[in-house]
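Quick illustration, no need to memorize.
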Amino acid sequence: MRFDTKIGIVVREDLATWQKLNVTAFLASAVAGGEPETVGRPYEDGSGNEYLPMFRQPVLVYATDGEGLAGVRERAVARGLRVAVYTEELFKTGNDDDNRAAVRAVAEEDLRLVGLALYGPRNAVDRTTKGLPLHP
């Protein structure tokens, strides 16, 4: 099935493995929470156990450096895509309120990005992530 929309997550390539996974999970939750239409129905196994719903479409995870992330953010904003950010400061916070305060305290051009999530029309997300390799 080909979707008209696309979910892309871009992670800074020099992070520790646990950080990459953490950033990816948090950014994916931003898309699910901010764009409810991206989530399908709950799952159920053959024994009747119910499981949480997941995205209804694939999520592509890309890798780049800090400069690349800044460029992706600029292009995404210019194209009107929905964007979630994860900054270096969020590794030092312990709750959602502190996370928001840490991002709010920094001007956009000074954000120390470690990851982004993008959601929007497939063509716009493709153009925004053009040239980025999929995360290995």
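Residues 35 and 48 are 28 Å apart (CA to CA).
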